Amino acid sequence: MIELEGLTKHFGKKVAVDNLSFTVRPGVVTGFLGPNGAGKSTTMRMMLDLDNPTRGRVRIDGRHYRDLDEPLKYIGALLDAKAMHGGRSAYNNLLCLAQANRIPARRVAEVLDVVGLTAVAKKKSKGFSLGMGQRLGIASALLGDPEILMFDEPVNGLDPEGIHWIRNLMKALAQEGRTIFVSSHLMSEMALTADHLIVIGQGKLLADTSMADFIHKNSRSYVRLRTPQRERLLDVLHGAGMIAVESGNGTLEIDGATTEALGELAAEHRITLHELSAQRASLEEAFMQMTAGAVEYHAHSTGDLPDAPPPTGPAAPQWAPRNEGA
Ligand SMILES: Nc1ncnc2c1ncn2[C@@H]1O[C@H](COP(=O)(O)OP(=O)(O)OP(=O)(O)O)[C@@H](O)[C@H]1O
């Protein structure tokens, strides 16, 4: 378990991390989401005692990182895949790390196998592609067989097969009861991987919620229609108390109606339809909206979100309240 309490980091006048408090629990994959510059890497660096907080604290299984004996056996991390010694082979990079942390040498071959680098174990890591470097970084995180694993943007540079692999690896590690904390700036990626979400924007906590809740609250359902009798259909919809919004290319979007009801309404009025389809707004859209709004909340010293903002159009998602499902 990882616990943050009021964690804050200033770089000069820049507030990179602003009073973050949340808990990362075992047995699930927790996604750490925020746009570029939101403060994810800085938060992770403070979790690993690589940066000192300006205020607040982090506890790893109840203790400060520097009070852990043999920390790699508690927490493994992939922060910067390029941090390896390029002149050393993959095997030797891991062996040095193992020896420095009193981890048995046999573990090196085991983790190389897990990440699929056995065939290139003797090659110097400076010749590795970005994807191979990521795999080597993941191997180093797994080396101490820790209960807690942190990955900063682990899918960077991976091809689709690699992305699929890391996704399944994280889920499998969580199923073993480990604590998995993974950062990304891509909602679409997290939607496929994470069970729980921590969202930050400009260093502040925006959401701490289960993925299921986030999807439930932010997936807007609507029906998309195309018709050559646009004006007539708009009149009919208006008469039925429905509001249609134009979304370009002659398509109309209607909230709060089913395809069945709209199909029957159109048939009743002998209106030809060229398209009638149920749609769901993407989570990426909801995430962008949530994080883009972060700047508006500087004045809220408690960090609480205000009530839902007024919708700006058919794509406006609802807000996921903080701390739900936490
Ligand atoms: N050493 C530093 N000195 C000054 N400013 C810094 C330093 N490290 C980070 N920052 C600033 O703090 C903010 C948060 O950066 P951070 O790298 O933690 O964000 P991030 O969410 O990880 O972004 P990305 O997805 O781009 O990696 C940014 O505005 C960044 O420019």
UniProtKB/TrEMBL annotation:
SMART domains: AAA. InterPro entries: AAA+_ATPase, ABC_transporter-like_ATP-bd, P-loop_NTPase. Residues 300-326 are annotated as: Disordered. Transmembrane segments: none annotated. This is ATP-binding cassette domain-containing protein. GO terms for molecular function: ATP binding. Residues 315-326 have a biased composition (Low complexity). Residues 2-227 form the ABC transporter domain. Keywords: ATP-binding, Nucleotide-binding, Transport. PROSITE patterns: ABC_TRANSPORTER_2. The lineage of its organism: Bacteria, Bacillati, Actinomycetota, Actinomycetes, Kitasatosporales. Pfam families: ABC_tran. Coiled coil: none annotated. Belongs to the ABC transporter superfamily. SUPFAM superfamilies: P-loop containing nucleoside triphosphate hydrolases.
